Amino acid sequence: MELRQVEHFLAVARTGSFTAAARETHIVQSALSASVRKLEAELGAPLFERTTRRVALTEAGRALLPVARRLAADVVAARGEVSAVVGLSRGRVSIGTIQTLTVVDLPREIGVFQRRHPGIQIHVRDGMVPELAAAIRDGELDLAYLAADGPLPGELTSYAQWSQRLVLVTYPGHRLEHRRRVRLAEIDDEPFVDFSGSVTQSMVRQRFAEAGLRHNPVCEATHVPLLIELVAMGLGVTIVPQSVAERARLPFARIEQVDFNRTIYLAGRVPEPTNPAARALLEHLAN
Asked: Residues in domain HTH lysR-type (predicted)?
């Protein structure tokens, strides 16, 4: 059963004439008659009694009529729903972010976007890069801000990217608190508070190993505010984005002779999202 067959059946039932129904649906009468005959063949029963004077519904036709009307109404409603989504008067978009996102004021940007498109529901999720990347691949997220020590995995698409410097954060009373630049060798075997599961943790371990130095984690945290509090209490030093260190108001220093810059990507699955709300949010964030 095809939608056009249902529409042709309804037109004949409404007008009581194949000729009038053909005019209403803007097709030739022979094509409309063939469409109705095909529908009757598929259903296995005649839907109209045809005489030279009138066309009347059969019992099968009367049984089909309310169902056909509901189908037609549902199609109109579906077209309206899709039109609303495409027109951004309604919709949903999901975006993920790392905790240490500072290159964009995401809450502010989402607020601006929501005021422009109040009918769009926005779901924001934070997490570590591996789980966010998996959520993009699985279709759970439309977009996500990801950190990487190099290029993105090949199955993801980058829409925009930024470079972010990482710095050493110490605490009041630490031997390096007044330094603005340090060498990595100066924190060989230093008690360290790790940001567990993060790209930063991987970078720190790799840079220490490449320099032949000992990375000495004495504590781990999975949330940035807790990480900063642990450092402030003197449990150890850490390495975080410079903007995070500045907001924490703890002593920090740039690390010399070693590349401690990472890349932040605004990423998705495909070059252009199919979700209209995601396309609109991407355009807002990328510009």
From this structure: 1-58
Cβ-in-10-Å burial (0-12, 13-18, 19+) of 140 comes to middle
Instruction: Write out the DSSP string of 49-117.
Output: EE-SS-EEE-HHHHHHHHHHHHHHHHHHHHHHHHHHHHTTSSEEEEEEE-TT--SS-HHHHHHHHHHH-
Same domain, 74 and 190: no
Together in a domain, 272 and 194: no
pTM of this prediction?
A: 0.74
Verify that 136 and 204 share a domain, yes or no.
Answer: no
Question: From first to last of its 287 residues, what are the pLDDT tens digits of the chain?
Answer: 899 999 999 999 999 999 999 999 999 999 999 999 999 999 999 999 988 778 999 999 999 999 999 998 888 778 777 877 778 888 889 999 999 999 999 999 999 999 999 988 999 999 999 999 999 998 899 999 999 999 998 889 999 999 999 999 999 999 999 999 999 999 999 999 999 999 999 999 999 999 999 999 999 999 999 999 999 999 999 999 999 999 999 999 999 999 999 999 999 999 988 889 999 999 999 88
Domain boundary among 56, 86, 116: 86
Are 136 and 156 part of one and the same domain?
A: yes
CA nearest neighbour of 193 among 165, 218, 226, 223: 218
Hey, which residues does 158 pair with through a beta bridge? Answer: 267
**Dist. CA 70–CA 141, nearest whole Å:** 34
State the residue range of the domain holding 147.
91-162+264-286
Statement to judge: residues 25 and 76 lie in one domain: yes
